[in-house]
Amino acid sequence: MTNLSIEPSIETFEPRSNARSFLFESAATTETIGRYSFVGVDPHKVITSGPGYSLGEQDPLPTLADELAQFRVAQVPGVKLPPLIGGAIGYVGYDCVKYFEPRTRRDLKDIVRVPESLFMFFHTIVAVDSFFQQIKIFTYLKVPGTPGAENNVEAGYELARQILSETLAAITARVPIPPQGPIKPDQEYTSNIGQAGYESHVTKLKEHINRGDIIQAVPSQRVARPTSLHPFNVYRRLRTVNPSPYLFFIDCEDFQIIGASPEVLVKSEQGRIITHPIAGTVKRGATAQEDDALAEELKNSLKDRAEHVMLVDLARNDVNRVCDPLSTRVDRLMIVQRFSHVQHLTSEVSGVLRPGKTRFDAFRSIFPAGTVSGAPKVRAMELIAELEGEKRGVYAGAVGYFGYDICLLDGTVEEGAMDTCITLRTMVMKDGIVYLQAGGGIVFDSDENDEYVETLNKLRANRACIDSAEALFALAEK
């Protein structure tokens, strides 16, 4: 362990931000929430799925489970370990839903062209403990007989010590900010459908709602523009202008995922499966008084309350599919949560997994969130696919990790940790283009223009991030 400096996660990660790697952070820093930031570099294995990728077109989760089952973490007496000390880190794109719900499968255009899912497997993880101001490095000693293991425990132990020493030297080395090309600020964003197209989608979905096909649906629009910013410099700026519960940078080598998500998809915590529906949005006020007034307006909005309660019921149904119904509960209901640019109504639903069910069953049951699809979920997703006609890719899917199982002191095995967020407020950078996407929940009395403006409000933080980063680094060039 070593003492932290001012920006430990950024400084720990920067030297290795030019290869497959990840950085997970959180704006919260209590003893239980957002306590750890995690860094991983040089994965020993990468699994991708989708047309033309390693797994092809199939559900990636069984392969993920098989890979994770090859290793276990031994519990250390008297030591409380972070939730992630090795495992699989990456994303499941929205379009993987066709493997979980075959009725949603459609022939869609692939504009951004990234894998439907990607997971990197790490044996060495750096955990930055913000609460106790420590850096902890974890690596694995492979038991003799395990593929790739040393011939004896002593040799394996020495190899692990060497890896720890090399990792410590690397993370304490100081390097300059990543270089980038000349900045060309104020470039225009291009929408894949524009205002008229989005409002047309809203109108058509309202027709389906009035016919009783669905109760709610969540269409989206994607915007894109060129930028010469280094992807990690975008992340550096994002964590400043839009601090969020889930901050992440994933370098997939030929593209990068940069996000500040406000919303848990599903996580496991002390034996419970937890999901956090977010629905209902207003902007932040210019003053504290305006902020409070807008929050009251949100709490008293019949439309937003009705939409939110419906999505909480959907979350309860998803949780009940894999949990003991008697254990399912709504822990928080319609609490206003404030973020850098918007305020949301938020709730929390949890339950205890039934015997024979796993974290992967919970993930399938809840994915994708009702807050990015609609209700009834399957029919809403069918209509979204038919209207949008394009793959959503990373957007509205999930980013997070699945840790290795833990072998307890009594010999029993505890399922590894899972923590995933919805890929909202997320950017994909590929071939010098940055892609942003946002949507909103449509109900029977939605106003087309208001719904379009809501997508702009949700895009505002990431657009501000790009614009301000370009201004900052253009100034640095002079």
TrEMBL record:
Domain of life assignment: Eukaryota
Pfam families according to UniProt: Anth_synt_I_N, Chorismate_bind
Domain (Chorismate-utilising enzyme C-terminal): residue spans on this chain: 196-458
Domain Anthranilate synthase component I N-terminal per the UniProt entry, residue ranges: 19-136
InterPro entries: ADC_synthase, Anth_synth_I-like, Anth_synth_I_N, Chorismate_C
GO biological process: L-tryptophan biosynthetic process
Database matches in PANTHER family: AMINOBENZOATE/ANTHRANILATE SYNTHASE, ANTHRANILATE SYNTHASE COMPONENT 1
Protein's name in the database: Putative anthranilate synthase component I
Organism: Microthyrium microscopicum
